[in-house]
Amino acid sequence: DASGKAHERVVGLGVAIGSGYLYETTFEKEVYSDLFGERGVLMGAINGLFRAQYDILRAQGHSPSEAFNETVEEATQSLFPLIGAKGMDWMYANCSVTAQRGALDWHQKFYDASLPVFKELYESVKNGTESQRSLDKNSQADYRESLEVELKDIRDAEIWRAGETVRGLRPENNK
Fold it and tell me: In whole angstroms, what is the distance from residue 124 CA to residue 8 CA?
């Protein structure tokens, strides 16, 4: 920061490009939080949780569309936007009594079950295992072909095929 105005300039640039929020970080913290988030709640964990709940509902005789609706559709179309706009505390205070009671009774069990996995994940990010895995996988000659196999497994999973059908039923997709 030779000029002494680097912070001011960066904030100005962030505002100028329309950033919704800015926060101070370091390169290291950004890398750790980014890798951790992508592998955790943003992609890996949410897909795992969605699949686990969906599979239980299907095993108990619920149809693919019902299982998808109760697992993904309500979360992404109703609850997540409200949590983003108003907060989890608002959701707890404004949901049905049965949803409220269930969430209050079960959230700690989910926290306790997932905390060790998140600790393992963060350590894997911090010690470089995750970065090395990405570099190793992405450097393989057959990377694109191998990636396509992995993505096809996700794309062909019943939960996401059911999701394609359910999304097609949304009012905005029936114009």
Answer: 35
Q: Exposed, middle or buried: residue 72 (CB in 10 Å: 0-12, 13-18, 19+)?
A: buried
Q: Closest Cα partner for 67 from 80, 78, 56, 54?
A: 54
Name the phi and psi angles at 122, rounded to 5.
-60, -40
| Residue 79 identity | L
Q: 25 near 10, Cβ under 8 Å? A: no
Cα distance between residue 103 and residue 68, in whole Å: 19
pLDDT band at 19 (very low <50, low <70, confident <90, very high): confident
How far is CA 141 from its chain centroid? 29
Which residues, at least 6 apart from 31, have a Cβ–Cβ distance to it below 8 Å?
131
The encoded tokens of residue 68 equal 């998808």
d(CA 50, CA 71): 6
Q: Among residues of the chain, what percentage have pLDDT more than 90?
A: 82
Mean pLDDT over 30-55 rounds to: 95
- Determine the residue type at 52: A
CA atoms lying within 13 Å on the CB side of residue 152: 6
CA 148 to mean position of chain CA atoms:
21
* pLDDT given at position 56: 98
